[in-house]
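BUG-442 | component: ligand-complex export | severity: low

The export step for uridine-5'-diphosphate-glucuronic acid jobs runs without errors, but we want the raw record kept on the ticket for reference. Input record follows.
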Amino acid sequence: MGTGYVGLVTALAFCHHGHRVTCVDIIPERVDSVSRGKAPFYEPDVAEALARHLGSGLLDATTDTAKAVASTEITFLCVGTPSSADGSYDLGHLGAAARSMGEAIAGLDRHHLVVTKSTVTPTANRSVVLPAITNASGKEAPAGFSLASNPEFLREGSALADALAPDRIVLGIMEGDQAARDLLEGLYAPFDRPLLVTSLEGAELIKLASNSLLAIKVAFANEVANLASSVDADGYQVLEGVGLDHRLGPHFLRAGAGFGGSCFPRGLRALVAFSRSQGAPALLPTAALDQNEVQPAVMVDLVRKALDGNLQGKRVALLGLAFKPDTDDVRETRALPIYKLLLEEGATVVCHDPRAGSNFVELVREEGLAHPDVREGLDEVLREANAAVIQTEWEEYRLLGPAELVSEMAPPRAIVDARRTFDPYMMRAAGVTYWGVGLPPP
Ligand code: UGA
């Protein structure tokens, strides 16, 4: 249930291993789009896999939950859990999906397993999903139906590859429900990945803790890089040195403009809300959220310094609007605070992204700001710009040579690289005025 990143990509991963999957969504346009082989979002390899599995007959899509439940053994709940005002996950869609599962299960004469993949607050399966199914079905778990938790760890931009080869598969199983455990272990056997079986709450907390620790790592890397830039040290080299310690590892130490996307900021907020509900202070996730708000301003500081202390009347190219490369997703993108700060200081901002331009226009409109100047052509955006900020490290940008980057720009032709997209030493050797995250000034 749910044809977003998690739902559709999970479906494709199961089809890859020969399982038959019916995608269910309450939005008819989404079902229609999936049935016609069009994914509702951009994600590498998804369009090809969708066409393949529709063609082979392993995949279909419907709005009819009861029909889908009647013809399958397991339902994965993959509906959205946005942030609510206090930072906790809004479980409204999940509760509604669980109720419709219960209604479908009521009429079944055989066992059905419901598995929550949506990211939830710890205890939500037991306190929200379970009672919703129980009440609507009139049956008790595990005799009448089963409920399990199976959090998803895929990243946008590499979603299908991640779903096919996860580092681990976590199964939260209810006490004594051996049948659910056997069914899920069998389902995942072809994936041949490490499998961890926990309680429902254990699985929920593994997901929240993993995302939060990754985000905390990024926030710490940003602080270290900022510190390095104030002395004669290269922040990226410092973090490389840190990551070479096998106890720490090199991953998620790329300093930049901060983390965006639908998962890290939302997950940290949810962990803060949940910790406080348990009387715990949530010091680390709170600090990571605070650090993340600082980072766009650090990037705009670099632009200001590069433009002699004043942005008034300057033309700035903003390259990269998606929250990360290889996606058209702009949720919580750091491009938005950078864009707003640049405008506030009087700059004219011209924007570009290989995929996310129209989504950024929509996001800026939702903020109540004037229509942003988003151009299709990279050359148009760079032409006459005094500075260019690289916010998303798209491959398309990486491939630009120093001359292609700056030759059409206007003095001082400053590059402010918020993601270490380019080799700073090569850029500086080629005469580019290159400012970057974690680097001392040129
Ligand atoms: C994240 C997790 O990595 C997934 O394991 C998880 O399944 C997913 O959230 C989720 O909960 O659905 P995602 O948000 O798609 O995945 O993307 P990431 O690659 O984790 O990047 C998140 C943000 O952190 C991006 O803005 C990225 O630019 C930033 N980041 C990441 C850094 O600034 N530095 C790094 O070293 C790594």
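Assignee comment: Attached the raw record above. The CA atoms of residues 258 and 294 lie 8 Å apart.
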